[in-house]
Amino acid sequence: MTGDAHRGELGDFLQARRSELSPDMVGLPGTGNRRRVRGLRREEVAALASISTDFYTRLEQGRRRASEEVLSALARVLRLSADERDYVFELSGREQRSGRPAQQQAQPQLRRLLDDLAATPAVVLGRRTDILAWNPMAAALFTDFGRLPEKDRNFVRLVFCDQRVRGLYPRWEYAARNGVAQLRREAAQDPDDPQLAALVDELSAQDTDFRRWWTAHQVAVRGAGSNQVRHPVVGDLTLDWAALVCTADPDQQLFTWTAQPGTPSHDALRELASRVSAGVLP
């Protein structure tokens, strides 16, 4: 992606966030039903950020670059989260990432750690949420990744396109939107990745929800969280997940899923582990 295109992405993001704010949310008087646009007007954002309307208009149109001071002011006015603020700064002046191999392989240290986590579902995710490695517990919890074509071993693709994986999530929208937000952040970090562009094009063509959420420009990077899984064998589980970044290759993360001890989810996870150990896979 060229610098001009990158600035265009920033403009789209600012416009999307502007449309989500009403005057009363930022301390401006309301105007009833007389507003022709959803959200704040450009001149309102500009005034609150102490910049000219012309400058802000050009910024949204991808025709201007902004200083750190202006970006900080806009982040404050638009009430951006910490992740969204980082995203804006990445779009505005990040260092180009180059020299990385197109195909990743899981680091040997992470593979050994996967083997040691016999009772804990764990996977190694690379760029674009590509699934680089997994342990038997992860295969038992989600799906047998080894039976999938290599191109289909992508977590976001599975959440949207694989009916079995999709059906595992009672809160499917929560999981799916998190995946979209992660890809949106990666698009800012590495906008020249052709494989990411191809994945976004594919999912946008196949799924209207993905297309809608992608254009909403939501971004998030979370290192931990929780979600529910409805497993066909051991039942409903509430699992806490955590992502550990590999220092040898920061583009790789080890994801684990655990349950709080003493809970039915913990018992269900232990039952799944015993089945895996006995070779009785679901």
From TrEMBL:
Domain of life: Bacteria
HTH cro/C1-type domain residues: 35-85
InterPro entries referenced in this protein's UniProt entry, alphabetically: Cro/C1-type_HTH (IPR001387), Lambda_DNA-bd_dom_sf (IPR010982), MLTR_LBD (IPR041413)
Molecular function GO terms recorded: DNA binding
Protein name (record): Helix-turn-helix protein
Taxonomic lineage: Bacteria, Bacillati, Actinomycetota, Actinomycetes, Pseudonocardiales
